[in-house]
Amino acid sequence: MKYRSAFDIIGPVMIGPSSSHTAGAARIGRVARTLFGKLPKKAIISLYGSFAKTYKGHGTDFAIIAGLLDFDTFDERMPKSLEIAQEKGIEVIFRTEEAITNHPNTVKINLFDGQDKLEMVGISIGGGTIEITELNSFPLKLSGEHPAVLVIHQDRFGIISAVTSILSRCEINIGHMEVSRLEKGEMALMVIEVDQKIEDMVIEELKNLANVTQIIRMVE
Amino acid sequence: MFRNVAELIELAEGNQVKIAEIMIRQEIEVSGLSREEVIAKMDMNLMIMEQAVERGLNGVHSHTGLTGGDAVLLQNYIKSGKALGGTILLDAVSKAVATNEVNAAMGVICATPTAGSAGVVPGTLFAVKEKLNPTREEMIEFLFTAAAFGFVVANNASISGAAGGCQAEVGSASGMAAASIVELAGGSPKQAAEAMAITLKNMLGLVCDPVAGLVEVPCVKRNAMGASNAITAADMALAGVTSRIPCDEVIHAMFLIGQSMPSTLRETAEGGLAATPTGRRLEQEIFGSGNTVKLKDLVIS
After folding, report:
1. In this structure, is residue A93 part of a structural domain?
2. How confident is the model at residue A220, as a pLDDT?
3. Under CATH, to which class is B5-300 assigned?
4. In the listed set A103, A118, A142, which residue is the last one of a domain according to the structure?
5. What's the whole-number mean pLDDT along residues B99-121?
6. ipTM of this complex
7. Average pLDDT along chain B
8. Which residues of chain B are within 8 Å of residue A17 when distances are taken between CB atoms?
9. End-to-end CA distance of chain A
10. Which of A17, A76, A80 shows the shortest C-beta gap to B215?
Protein backbone atom coordinates (compact mmCIF):
# COMPACT_ATOMS: atom_id res chain seq x y z
CA MET A 1 0.00 0.00 0.00
CA LYS A 2 1.58 3.23 -1.19
CA TYR A 3 -0.67 5.42 0.97
CA ARG A 4 -0.97 4.60 4.66
CA SER A 5 -2.56 7.58 6.38
CA ALA A 6 -5.83 9.53 6.21
CA PHE A 7 -3.63 12.62 6.15
CA ASP A 8 -2.01 11.49 2.90
CA ILE A 9 -5.48 12.01 1.42
CA ILE A 10 -6.79 14.99 3.44
CA GLY A 11 -3.56 16.97 3.47
CA PRO A 12 -0.95 18.26 3.32
CA VAL A 13 -1.64 21.85 4.25
CA MET A 14 0.35 23.60 1.59
CA ILE A 15 1.04 26.58 -0.63
CA GLY A 16 -0.66 26.08 -4.02
CA PRO A 17 -0.92 25.33 -6.80
CA SER A 18 -0.09 21.60 -7.08
CA SER A 19 0.19 18.87 -4.45
CA SER A 20 2.44 16.70 -6.61
CA HIS A 21 4.38 19.42 -8.42
CA THR A 22 4.66 21.94 -5.57
CA ALA A 23 4.15 20.27 -2.15
CA GLY A 24 5.60 16.91 -3.26
CA ALA A 25 8.53 18.67 -4.94
CA ALA A 26 9.19 20.67 -1.76
CA ARG A 27 9.14 17.46 0.29
CA ILE A 28 11.63 15.78 -2.06
CA GLY A 29 13.90 18.81 -1.78
CA ARG A 30 13.63 18.70 2.00
CA VAL A 31 14.57 15.02 2.16
CA ALA A 32 17.62 15.79 0.03
CA ARG A 33 18.53 18.55 2.47
CA THR A 34 18.12 16.20 5.43
CA LEU A 35 20.23 13.49 3.78
CA PHE A 36 22.91 16.06 2.89
CA GLY A 37 22.75 17.35 6.46
CA LYS A 38 23.36 21.00 5.59
CA LEU A 39 22.68 23.74 3.09
CA PRO A 40 24.55 22.95 -0.16
CA LYS A 41 26.78 25.45 -1.98
CA LYS A 42 25.55 24.24 -5.33
CA ALA A 43 22.48 22.31 -6.51
CA ILE A 44 21.77 20.77 -9.90
CA ILE A 45 18.11 19.88 -10.34
CA SER A 46 17.23 17.59 -13.26
CA LEU A 47 13.51 17.35 -14.06
CA TYR A 48 11.85 14.52 -15.97
CA GLY A 49 8.43 13.82 -17.50
CA SER A 50 5.53 15.98 -16.34
CA PHE A 51 7.93 17.77 -13.97
CA ALA A 52 10.04 18.84 -16.96
CA LYS A 53 7.02 19.85 -19.07
CA THR A 54 5.09 21.87 -16.50
CA TYR A 55 7.51 22.94 -13.76
CA LYS A 56 7.16 26.60 -14.62
CA GLY A 57 3.39 26.63 -14.22
CA HIS A 58 3.42 24.60 -11.04
CA GLY A 59 6.32 26.33 -9.31
CA THR A 60 8.19 23.01 -9.06
CA ASP A 61 11.45 24.93 -9.33
CA PHE A 62 10.96 27.19 -6.32
CA ALA A 63 9.31 24.35 -4.39
CA ILE A 64 12.38 22.09 -4.66
CA ILE A 65 14.65 24.94 -3.62
CA ALA A 66 12.29 25.73 -0.72
CA GLY A 67 12.78 22.13 0.39
CA LEU A 68 16.56 22.52 0.19
CA LEU A 69 16.17 25.60 2.39
CA ASP A 70 14.32 23.34 4.87
CA PHE A 71 10.93 25.06 4.37
CA ASP A 72 7.74 23.10 5.08
CA THR A 73 4.97 22.70 2.44
CA PHE A 74 2.94 25.56 3.96
CA ASP A 75 5.81 28.02 4.43
CA GLU A 76 4.69 31.33 2.91
CA ARG A 77 8.27 32.12 1.90
CA MET A 78 8.11 29.28 -0.63
CA PRO A 79 7.36 31.37 -3.76
CA LYS A 80 10.43 33.51 -2.96
CA SER A 81 12.80 30.62 -2.35
CA LEU A 82 14.82 31.14 -5.55
CA GLU A 83 15.65 34.67 -4.41
CA ILE A 84 16.38 33.53 -0.87
CA ALA A 85 18.75 30.84 -2.19
CA GLN A 86 20.50 33.48 -4.28
CA GLU A 87 20.92 35.72 -1.24
CA LYS A 88 22.47 32.80 0.63
CA GLY A 89 24.94 32.36 -2.22
CA ILE A 90 23.69 28.98 -3.41
CA GLU A 91 24.30 28.25 -7.07
CA VAL A 92 21.19 26.63 -8.56
CA ILE A 93 21.03 25.00 -11.99
CA PHE A 94 17.83 23.57 -13.48
CA ARG A 95 17.87 21.02 -16.29
CA THR A 96 14.93 19.55 -18.16
CA GLU A 97 15.60 16.02 -19.36
CA GLU A 98 13.99 14.15 -22.26
CA ALA A 99 14.63 10.64 -20.91
CA ILE A 100 11.51 8.60 -20.10
CA THR A 101 11.43 7.57 -16.44
CA ASN A 102 9.29 4.95 -14.71
CA HIS A 103 7.23 7.63 -13.00
CA PRO A 104 6.11 10.82 -14.81
CA ASN A 105 7.03 13.08 -11.88
CA THR A 106 10.71 12.36 -11.36
CA VAL A 107 13.53 14.65 -10.21
CA LYS A 108 17.23 14.04 -9.71
CA ILE A 109 18.94 16.32 -7.22
CA ASN A 110 22.72 16.71 -7.08
CA LEU A 111 24.08 18.67 -4.13
CA PHE A 112 27.63 19.91 -3.63
CA ASP A 113 29.67 21.55 -0.90
CA GLY A 114 33.42 21.23 -1.40
CA GLN A 115 34.24 17.52 -1.14
CA ASP A 116 30.72 16.60 -0.05
CA LYS A 117 28.38 15.36 -2.74
CA LEU A 118 24.96 13.78 -2.86
CA GLU A 119 22.86 12.42 -5.69
CA MET A 120 19.24 11.59 -4.98
CA VAL A 121 16.28 10.64 -7.15
CA GLY A 122 12.74 11.24 -5.93
CA ILE A 123 9.26 10.73 -7.36
CA SER A 124 6.05 12.57 -6.49
CA ILE A 125 3.29 9.98 -6.67
CA GLY A 126 0.24 12.20 -6.08
CA GLY A 127 -1.44 14.28 -3.39
CA GLY A 128 1.92 15.38 -1.99
CA THR A 129 3.10 11.86 -1.19
CA ILE A 130 6.65 11.10 -2.30
CA GLU A 131 9.18 8.29 -2.56
CA ILE A 132 12.94 8.48 -2.69
CA THR A 133 14.02 5.86 -5.21
CA GLU A 134 17.77 6.33 -5.48
CA LEU A 135 20.59 7.64 -3.30
CA ASN A 136 24.16 7.89 -4.62
CA SER A 137 23.27 5.22 -7.23
CA PHE A 138 21.81 2.86 -4.63
CA PRO A 139 18.21 1.92 -5.39
CA LEU A 140 16.02 2.34 -2.32
CA LYS A 141 12.48 3.06 -1.21
CA LEU A 142 12.05 5.76 1.37
CA SER A 143 8.90 7.77 2.08
CA GLY A 144 10.54 10.46 4.16
CA GLU A 145 7.47 10.35 6.42
CA HIS A 146 8.88 8.14 9.14
CA PRO A 147 12.00 8.39 11.26
CA ALA A 148 14.69 6.40 9.51
CA VAL A 149 18.36 5.62 9.69
CA LEU A 150 20.50 5.05 6.60
CA VAL A 151 23.70 3.08 7.10
CA ILE A 152 26.36 3.21 4.42
CA HIS A 153 28.85 0.41 4.99
CA GLN A 154 31.27 -2.07 3.49
CA ASP A 155 29.48 -5.19 2.23
CA ARG A 156 30.76 -7.66 4.88
CA PHE A 157 29.08 -10.41 6.86
CA GLY A 158 27.57 -9.58 10.24
CA ILE A 159 26.98 -5.86 9.76
CA ILE A 160 23.22 -6.11 9.37
CA SER A 161 23.06 -8.19 12.52
CA ALA A 162 25.32 -5.73 14.41
CA VAL A 163 23.12 -2.78 13.44
CA THR A 164 19.83 -4.48 14.25
CA SER A 165 21.24 -5.74 17.56
CA ILE A 166 21.88 -2.16 18.66
CA LEU A 167 18.34 -1.14 17.65
CA SER A 168 16.92 -4.16 19.42
CA ARG A 169 18.81 -3.39 22.63
CA CYS A 170 17.53 0.21 22.51
CA GLU A 171 13.99 -1.14 22.05
CA ILE A 172 13.53 0.50 18.64
CA ASN A 173 11.02 -1.29 16.43
CA ILE A 174 11.82 -1.58 12.71
CA GLY A 175 8.87 -0.82 10.43
CA HIS A 176 10.57 -1.35 7.08
CA MET A 177 14.10 -2.35 6.16
CA GLU A 178 16.04 -2.99 2.98
CA VAL A 179 19.62 -3.56 2.00
CA SER A 180 21.26 -2.94 -1.34
CA ARG A 181 24.77 -2.88 -2.70
CA LEU A 182 26.46 -1.70 -5.85
CA GLU A 183 28.74 -4.74 -6.14
CA LYS A 184 29.50 -7.76 -3.99
CA GLY A 185 32.00 -6.82 -1.29
CA GLU A 186 31.86 -3.10 -2.13
CA MET A 187 29.78 -0.28 -0.67
CA ALA A 188 26.33 -1.16 0.61
CA LEU A 189 23.34 0.73 1.95
CA MET A 190 20.90 -0.23 4.66
CA VAL A 191 17.63 1.72 4.93
CA ILE A 192 15.77 1.21 8.19
CA GLU A 193 12.45 2.96 8.84
CA VAL A 194 11.52 2.86 12.51
CA ASP A 195 8.53 3.73 14.65
CA GLN A 196 10.07 6.25 17.00
CA LYS A 197 12.71 8.98 17.12
CA ILE A 198 16.28 7.73 17.15
CA GLU A 199 18.38 9.24 19.95
CA ASP A 200 21.92 10.65 19.41
CA MET A 201 23.35 7.92 21.60
CA VAL A 202 22.12 5.23 19.20
CA ILE A 203 23.54 7.06 16.21
CA GLU A 204 26.94 7.35 17.93
CA GLU A 205 26.94 3.65 18.68
CA LEU A 206 26.08 2.80 15.06
CA LYS A 207 28.86 5.11 13.80
CA ASN A 208 31.43 3.23 15.89
CA LEU A 209 30.65 -0.15 14.32
CA ALA A 210 33.40 -1.70 12.20
CA ASN A 211 33.01 -1.28 8.42
CA VAL A 212 30.35 1.43 8.81
CA THR A 213 31.24 4.44 6.64
CA GLN A 214 28.39 6.84 7.31
CA ILE A 215 25.15 7.11 9.25
CA ILE A 216 22.36 9.40 8.10
CA ARG A 217 19.41 10.03 10.35
CA MET A 218 16.02 11.13 9.09
CA VAL A 219 13.42 12.47 11.45
CA GLU A 220 9.75 13.25 10.92
CA MET B 1 -6.51 -2.35 7.28
CA PHE B 2 -9.17 -2.14 4.55
CA ARG B 3 -7.92 -2.57 1.00
CA ASN B 4 -11.05 -1.79 -0.98
CA VAL B 5 -14.52 -0.28 -0.68
CA ALA B 6 -16.17 -3.68 -0.11
CA GLU B 7 -13.97 -4.31 2.95
CA LEU B 8 -14.57 -0.76 4.18
CA ILE B 9 -18.36 -1.22 4.03
CA GLU B 10 -18.11 -4.64 5.67
CA LEU B 11 -16.05 -3.19 8.54
CA ALA B 12 -18.50 -0.32 9.09
CA GLU B 13 -21.55 -2.56 8.96
CA GLY B 14 -19.96 -5.32 11.04
CA ASN B 15 -18.99 -2.89 13.79
CA GLN B 16 -22.17 -0.86 13.35
CA VAL B 17 -20.24 2.38 13.09
CA LYS B 18 -19.80 5.12 10.50
CA ILE B 19 -17.16 4.86 7.79
CA ALA B 20 -15.49 7.86 9.42
CA GLU B 21 -15.02 5.81 12.58
CA ILE B 22 -13.28 2.99 10.66
CA MET B 23 -10.87 5.54 9.17
CA ILE B 24 -10.22 7.13 12.58
CA ARG B 25 -9.51 3.73 14.17
CA GLN B 26 -7.13 2.79 11.36
CA GLU B 27 -5.33 6.13 11.63
CA ILE B 28 -4.84 5.66 15.38
CA GLU B 29 -3.34 2.23 14.73
CA VAL B 30 -1.07 3.26 11.85
CA SER B 31 0.18 6.54 13.34
CA GLY B 32 0.47 5.52 16.98
CA LEU B 33 -1.23 8.80 17.90
CA SER B 34 -4.10 9.04 20.38
CA ARG B 35 -7.70 9.54 19.23
CA GLU B 36 -7.59 13.14 20.48
CA GLU B 37 -4.40 13.82 18.50
CA VAL B 38 -5.82 12.33 15.30
CA ILE B 39 -9.05 14.35 15.65
CA ALA B 40 -7.10 17.54 16.44
CA LYS B 41 -4.95 17.04 13.35
CA MET B 42 -8.04 16.82 11.13
CA ASP B 43 -9.59 19.78 12.93
CA MET B 44 -6.52 21.79 11.92
CA ASN B 45 -7.02 20.79 8.27
CA LEU B 46 -10.69 21.79 8.55
CA MET B 47 -9.62 25.21 9.85
CA ILE B 48 -7.29 25.69 6.89
CA MET B 49 -10.20 24.81 4.56
CA GLU B 50 -12.46 27.34 6.27
CA GLN B 51 -9.83 30.06 5.96
CA ALA B 52 -9.23 29.28 2.28
CA VAL B 53 -12.94 29.46 1.42
CA GLU B 54 -13.31 32.70 3.33
CA ARG B 55 -10.36 34.22 1.52
CA GLY B 56 -11.71 33.08 -1.86
CA LEU B 57 -15.19 34.44 -1.19
CA ASN B 58 -13.65 37.85 -0.50
CA GLY B 59 -12.17 37.79 -3.99
CA VAL B 60 -8.72 36.62 -4.97
CA HIS B 61 -6.81 36.65 -8.27
CA SER B 62 -3.90 34.54 -9.49
CA HIS B 63 -0.56 36.10 -10.42
CA THR B 64 -1.17 35.35 -14.09
CA GLY B 65 -4.66 36.84 -14.07
CA LEU B 66 -6.09 33.66 -15.65
CA THR B 67 -8.36 32.90 -12.70
CA GLY B 68 -10.02 34.67 -9.80
CA GLY B 69 -13.15 36.53 -8.82
CA ASP B 70 -15.64 33.87 -9.96
CA ALA B 71 -16.54 32.80 -6.42
CA VAL B 72 -17.66 36.37 -5.75
CA LEU B 73 -19.73 36.47 -8.97
CA LEU B 74 -21.46 33.25 -7.95
CA GLN B 75 -22.22 34.45 -4.42
CA ASN B 76 -23.72 37.68 -5.77
CA TYR B 77 -25.81 35.68 -8.24
CA ILE B 78 -27.14 33.44 -5.44
CA LYS B 79 -28.07 36.55 -3.44
CA SER B 80 -29.94 38.01 -6.45
CA GLY B 81 -32.47 35.18 -6.09
CA LYS B 82 -32.39 34.45 -9.83
CA ALA B 83 -30.44 31.18 -9.57
CA LEU B 84 -32.01 28.26 -11.40
CA GLY B 85 -30.02 25.55 -9.64
CA GLY B 86 -30.72 25.06 -5.93
CA THR B 87 -28.98 27.35 -3.45
CA ILE B 88 -27.01 24.50 -1.84
CA LEU B 89 -25.74 23.34 -5.21
CA LEU B 90 -24.57 26.79 -6.27
CA ASP B 91 -23.18 27.54 -2.84
CA ALA B 92 -21.07 24.37 -3.09
CA VAL B 93 -19.92 25.41 -6.55
CA SER B 94 -18.94 28.90 -5.38
CA LYS B 95 -17.06 27.56 -2.34
CA ALA B 96 -15.23 24.96 -4.42
CA VAL B 97 -14.23 27.73 -6.83
CA ALA B 98 -13.21 29.95 -3.90
CA THR B 99 -10.76 27.32 -2.62
CA ASN B 100 -9.23 26.68 -6.01
CA GLU B 101 -8.88 30.37 -6.74
CA VAL B 102 -6.85 30.64 -3.54
CA ASN B 103 -4.80 27.64 -4.64
CA ALA B 104 -4.14 29.17 -8.06
CA ALA B 105 -3.05 32.38 -6.31
CA MET B 106 -0.47 30.29 -4.39
CA GLY B 107 -2.34 30.73 -1.13
CA VAL B 108 -2.50 28.18 1.68
CA ILE B 109 -4.93 25.29 1.13
CA CYS B 110 -5.37 21.72 2.30
CA ALA B 111 -4.95 19.12 -0.46
CA THR B 112 -8.09 16.92 -0.73
CA PRO B 113 -6.82 14.63 -2.18
CA THR B 114 -4.66 16.98 -4.27
CA ALA B 115 -4.21 20.73 -4.52
CA GLY B 116 -5.70 20.91 -8.00
CA SER B 117 -8.87 19.23 -6.68
CA ALA B 118 -8.82 20.88 -3.24
CA GLY B 119 -12.12 22.73 -3.72
CA VAL B 120 -14.61 19.89 -4.05
CA VAL B 121 -14.63 18.34 -0.57
CA PRO B 122 -14.65 21.59 1.46
CA GLY B 123 -16.97 23.29 -1.05
CA THR B 124 -19.65 20.63 -0.65
CA LEU B 125 -19.15 20.36 3.13
CA PHE B 126 -19.58 24.08 3.76
CA ALA B 127 -22.67 24.19 1.48
CA VAL B 128 -24.57 21.19 2.91
CA LYS B 129 -23.62 22.45 6.37
CA GLU B 130 -26.22 25.21 5.93
CA LYS B 131 -29.00 22.62 5.68
CA LEU B 132 -27.74 19.75 7.84
CA ASN B 133 -26.31 21.87 10.70
CA PRO B 134 -23.56 19.40 11.65
CA THR B 135 -21.56 19.66 14.86
CA ARG B 136 -17.83 20.38 14.63
CA GLU B 137 -17.24 16.69 15.31
CA GLU B 138 -19.49 15.66 12.43
CA MET B 139 -17.66 18.03 10.09
CA ILE B 140 -14.39 16.41 11.09
CA GLU B 141 -15.98 13.00 10.48
CA PHE B 142 -17.00 14.20 7.01
CA LEU B 143 -13.29 14.59 6.23
CA PHE B 144 -12.41 11.16 7.61
CA THR B 145 -15.12 9.55 5.45
CA ALA B 146 -13.69 11.37 2.44
CA ALA B 147 -10.22 10.18 3.46
CA ALA B 148 -11.39 6.55 3.64
CA PHE B 149 -12.70 6.55 0.06
CA GLY B 150 -9.73 8.56 -1.21
CA PHE B 151 -7.42 6.08 0.51
CA VAL B 152 -8.93 3.21 -1.50
CA VAL B 153 -8.63 5.11 -4.79
CA ALA B 154 -5.05 6.20 -4.04
CA ASN B 155 -3.95 2.64 -3.30
CA ASN B 156 -5.89 0.88 -6.07
CA ALA B 157 -5.86 3.47 -8.86
CA SER B 158 -4.26 6.91 -8.56
CA ILE B 159 -4.82 10.41 -7.26
CA SER B 160 -2.20 11.93 -9.56
CA GLY B 161 -3.11 13.82 -12.74
CA ALA B 162 0.32 12.98 -14.16
CA ALA B 163 -0.36 9.28 -13.64
CA GLY B 164 -4.12 9.01 -14.21
CA GLY B 165 -5.51 12.26 -15.65
CA CYS B 166 -8.06 14.59 -14.02
CA GLN B 167 -10.41 11.66 -13.29
CA ALA B 168 -7.82 10.74 -10.64
CA GLU B 169 -7.92 14.22 -9.10
CA VAL B 170 -11.29 15.98 -9.45
CA GLY B 171 -12.89 12.58 -10.12
CA SER B 172 -11.58 11.14 -6.85
CA ALA B 173 -12.39 14.33 -4.93
CA SER B 174 -15.93 14.34 -6.28
CA GLY B 175 -16.51 10.68 -5.36
CA MET B 176 -15.07 11.24 -1.88
CA ALA B 177 -17.33 14.26 -1.36
CA ALA B 178 -20.43 12.39 -2.56
CA ALA B 179 -19.81 9.54 -0.10
CA SER B 180 -19.22 11.97 2.77
CA ILE B 181 -22.39 13.94 2.03
CA VAL B 182 -24.41 10.71 2.13
CA GLU B 183 -22.96 9.75 5.50
CA LEU B 184 -23.49 13.23 6.96
CA ALA B 185 -27.10 13.21 5.71
CA GLY B 186 -27.70 9.95 7.55
CA GLY B 187 -27.28 7.49 4.68
CA SER B 188 -25.84 4.00 5.20
CA PRO B 189 -22.24 2.98 4.43
CA LYS B 190 -23.60 1.10 1.40
CA GLN B 191 -25.37 4.22 0.12
CA ALA B 192 -22.12 6.17 0.56
CA ALA B 193 -20.36 3.62 -1.68
CA GLU B 194 -23.18 3.88 -4.25
CA ALA B 195 -22.73 7.67 -4.34
CA MET B 196 -18.98 7.24 -4.83
CA ALA B 197 -19.55 4.77 -7.68
CA ILE B 198 -22.19 6.94 -9.41
CA THR B 199 -19.90 9.99 -9.23
CA LEU B 200 -16.76 8.25 -10.45
CA LYS B 201 -18.59 6.65 -13.37
CA ASN B 202 -19.34 10.13 -14.63
CA MET B 203 -15.78 11.32 -14.20
CA LEU B 204 -14.11 8.41 -16.01
CA GLY B 205 -11.81 9.45 -18.81
CA LEU B 206 -11.48 13.06 -17.72
CA VAL B 207 -8.07 14.23 -18.94
CA CYS B 208 -5.51 16.50 -17.27
CA ASP B 209 -4.76 19.30 -19.75
CA PRO B 210 -3.79 22.44 -17.83
CA VAL B 211 -3.21 25.51 -19.98
CA ALA B 212 0.45 26.57 -19.72
CA GLY B 213 0.86 23.81 -17.12
CA LEU B 214 -0.80 26.07 -14.56
CA VAL B 215 -3.36 24.74 -12.07
CA GLU B 216 -5.89 27.32 -13.25
CA VAL B 217 -7.59 26.60 -16.57
CA PRO B 218 -9.60 24.35 -16.57
CA CYS B 219 -8.89 23.18 -12.99
CA VAL B 220 -10.92 25.81 -11.13
CA LYS B 221 -14.10 25.16 -13.14
CA ARG B 222 -13.60 21.39 -12.99
CA ASN B 223 -13.77 21.74 -9.20
CA ALA B 224 -17.07 23.58 -9.64
CA MET B 225 -18.50 20.71 -11.69
CA GLY B 226 -16.95 18.15 -9.36
CA ALA B 227 -18.86 19.71 -6.47
CA SER B 228 -22.21 19.72 -8.30
CA ASN B 229 -21.61 16.17 -9.51
CA ALA B 230 -21.01 15.09 -5.89
CA ILE B 231 -24.23 16.66 -4.59
CA THR B 232 -26.31 15.20 -7.42
CA ALA B 233 -24.84 11.70 -6.91
CA ALA B 234 -25.33 11.94 -3.14
CA ASP B 235 -29.00 12.84 -3.67
CA MET B 236 -29.38 9.92 -6.10
CA ALA B 237 -27.88 7.46 -3.63
CA LEU B 238 -30.01 8.83 -0.77
CA ALA B 239 -33.06 8.43 -3.00
CA GLY B 240 -32.21 4.74 -3.26
CA VAL B 241 -30.57 4.71 -6.70
CA THR B 242 -27.77 2.13 -6.95
CA SER B 243 -24.86 1.64 -9.33
CA ARG B 244 -25.00 -1.44 -11.57
CA ILE B 245 -21.20 -1.57 -11.52
CA PRO B 246 -19.83 -2.02 -7.97
CA CYS B 247 -17.66 0.81 -6.62
CA ASP B 248 -14.42 -1.23 -6.57
CA GLU B 249 -14.88 -2.23 -10.21
CA VAL B 250 -15.42 1.42 -11.17
CA ILE B 251 -12.18 2.30 -9.37
CA HIS B 252 -10.34 -0.45 -11.22
CA ALA B 253 -11.77 0.78 -14.52
CA MET B 254 -10.49 4.23 -13.64
CA PHE B 255 -7.02 2.78 -13.03
CA LEU B 256 -6.98 1.01 -16.42
CA ILE B 257 -8.27 4.10 -18.23
CA GLY B 258 -5.51 6.17 -16.60
CA GLN B 259 -2.90 3.67 -17.73
CA SER B 260 -4.06 3.78 -21.33
CA MET B 261 -4.27 7.58 -21.42
CA PRO B 262 -1.56 9.12 -23.63
CA SER B 263 1.01 11.24 -21.80
CA THR B 264 -0.14 14.33 -23.73
CA LEU B 265 -3.32 14.18 -21.63
CA ARG B 266 -1.62 13.53 -18.29
CA GLU B 267 -0.48 16.87 -16.92
CA THR B 268 2.12 17.65 -19.58
CA ALA B 269 0.29 20.66 -21.05
CA GLU B 270 0.79 19.08 -24.49
CA GLY B 271 -2.78 18.10 -25.38
CA GLY B 272 -6.45 18.87 -24.82
CA LEU B 273 -7.30 22.43 -23.80
CA ALA B 274 -3.61 23.26 -23.34
CA ALA B 275 -3.06 22.61 -27.05
CA THR B 276 -5.96 24.77 -28.31
CA PRO B 277 -5.01 27.98 -30.16
CA THR B 278 -6.12 30.06 -27.17
CA GLY B 279 -4.37 27.75 -24.72
CA ARG B 280 -1.12 28.10 -26.66
CA ARG B 281 -1.50 31.88 -26.94
CA LEU B 282 -2.03 32.22 -23.19
CA GLU B 283 1.04 30.06 -22.56
CA GLN B 284 3.08 32.32 -24.85
CA GLU B 285 1.80 35.45 -23.10
CA ILE B 286 2.64 34.10 -19.66
CA PHE B 287 5.96 32.40 -20.28
CA GLY B 288 7.19 34.02 -23.47
CA SER B 289 10.04 32.10 -25.02
CA GLY B 290 10.21 29.58 -22.23
CA ASN B 291 12.63 30.76 -19.58
CA THR B 292 11.70 30.64 -15.92
CA VAL B 293 12.56 34.24 -15.13
CA LYS B 294 9.17 35.58 -16.09
CA LEU B 295 7.18 33.39 -13.73
CA LYS B 296 9.61 34.14 -10.93
CA ASP B 297 9.03 37.85 -11.45
CA LEU B 298 5.30 37.28 -11.51
CA VAL B 299 5.39 35.38 -8.26
CA ILE B 300 7.56 37.82 -6.41
CA SER B 301 5.85 41.01 -7.58
Report:
1. yes
2. 54
3. mainly alpha
4. A142
5. 97
6. 0.94
7. 94
8. 103-104, 106, 115-116, 214-216
9. 20
10. A17
